[in-house]
Amino acid sequence: MASRKNRRTRKQSKKIAFKLKILIVYIFILLNIEMAAQQLAIETTFHCGAVWRHTPKLTTRTGETLFGQELGVRFQTMGRRDWQVWQRYPIFGVSLVHFHLGADSHSDGFGLLPNLSVPIIRAGRFAAFFRLGTGLAWVTQPYDYFDNPGENALGSHWNNITQFRLGGEWRLDAHWRLQAGGALNHISNGGSALPNFGINLASGYLGLVWSPKPVRKEDFLLAQADKRATRRFGGMIQSGFANLEYGVFDGPKYSVWAGAIAGYFHFNRINRAHLGIDYEFNKAIYEFGLQSGDFENKEEAKMGATRLAVFIADEFLFGPIGVQLQIGRYVGSGLNQYVLRQNYSKLSIRLYAPKLFSTSLQPNIGITMKAHATTAEFISMNLGLAF
Q1: What pLDDT was estimated at residue 170?
Q2: Torsion angle, CA of 274/276/280/285, rounded to 10 degrees?
Q3: CA atoms of 282 and 243, how far apart (whole Å)
Q4: So what's the pLDDT on residue 5?
């Protein structure tokens, strides 16, 4: 019995690892597009924080002080492309991350975290940044029915790690900078293996940044084109697929098929707002409702497993990379059964191809992380077309 359980766990971990490795490769493609010929720096960061008990269902230990570290390399854009100037010279980077989560809290977590830092303020020696990172994490002691039944935040070794960081830097001299701020670190597998309440770790951080080559004000270039949008209105269609467990730990996998259509309005060439409709068909809801008797027939099950929502979103463009923050609300009678909440949020990252045949058609691939409040529901792979 235990041997069969272990084989199943290893099989699930391999599937999750494969999907998350696709995520990492994809994000590195994004980073490599813009890393070349930028100013390199090395950063070290020390974290002190605690796991937040975001749901009463969480049996993993929370609230106790824990520590973490980051060692990373980052690349300062210098304005070689106009969008870098319009976005205030953002910084691309990748970090190795470690958090000692402690006994009764899945032990240790290790991560590889590609990231993007966007300046908020630049004033003399001081700069404030918002940083977004998402990548691959390995947790040493996930939930296991036999060996670790008391820790239910994570059901797999392989997970996604997403980090939001807000902080400031003070330039000590031409080579060294001191940085400090706060971070929210989220670890989950997007429902690919249950349990998946996720780890939400709030931390403060302190670090040093060293640049082998001085970053001087006169090295930053100015934009050659106008930031104002040349075309205000457009549209987007997108399809997506996710695979997840539902309801039962170590249960079967079910598919989620998703689609969206939206119109957008360009505020300028690096920022646009979307208004649209989301569609999902959740096979797990379909099967669960039929087997439990909540749905009387297949037609009713199809209705209940269908999710329909309206959403608004804001997309920030960094050359060929788009980062979109979205909120939505389910609508429709007889639809949207077993949703955790009426509202949801999504974080999407897209890589845009060049426009086709001198038209406005622009294909893209992407990844979306969907959550209800603080609990992740799934991670999907997407294909889309902007026009």
Answers
A1: 98
A2: 100
A3: 10
A4: 47
Alpha-carbon Rg of the chain, whole angstroms?
A: 22
CA dihedral 266, 272, 273, 275 (to 10 degrees): 80
Q: How many other C-beta atoms lie within 10 A of the C-beta of residue 103?
A: 11
Contact 159, 187 (CB under 8 A): yes
The rounded average pLDDT for each run of 10 residues, N- to C-terminus, in the chain (387 residues) is 50 57 60 62 98 93 96 96 96 97 94 97 96 97 92 95 98 96 96 91 98 90 95 97 84 93 98 99 92 91 96 98 98 92 97 93 96 90 97
- The pTM assigned to this predicted structure is 0.87
pLDDT at 217: 87
| pLDDT at 376 (0 to 100) | 86
CATH class, 2-219 region: mainly beta
HEC assignment per residue over the chain: CHHHHHHHHHHHHHHHHHHHHHHHHHHHHHHHHHHCCCEEEEEEEEEEEEECCCCCCCCCCCCCCEEEEEEEEEEECCCCCHHHHHCCCCEEEEEEEEEEEECCCCEEEEEEEEEEEEEEEEECCEEEEEEEEEEEEEECCCCECCCECCCCCCCCCEEEEEEEEEEEEEECCCCEEEEEEEEEEEEECCCCCCCCCCEEEEEEEEEEEECCCCCCHHHCCCCCCCCCCCCCEEEEEEEEEEEEECCCCCCCEEEEEEEEEEEEEEEECCEEEEEEEEEEEEHHHHHHHHHHCCCCCHHHHHHHHEEEEEEEEEEEEECCEEEEEEEEEECCCCCCCCCCCCEEEEEEEEEECCCHHHCCCEEEEEEEEEEECCEEEEEEEEEEEEC
Q: What is the pLDDT of residue 291?
A: 87
Residue 230 identity: T
- Cα–Cα dist 131/348, whole Å: 15
* CATH 2.40.160.20 residue spans of the chain: 2-219
Among the listed residues 221, 117, 133, 97, the one whose alpha carbon sits nearest the alpha carbon of residue 177:
117
CATH architecture of 233-386: Beta Barrel (2.40)
Which residues neighbour 7 within 8 Å (Cβ) at sequence distance 6 or greater? none
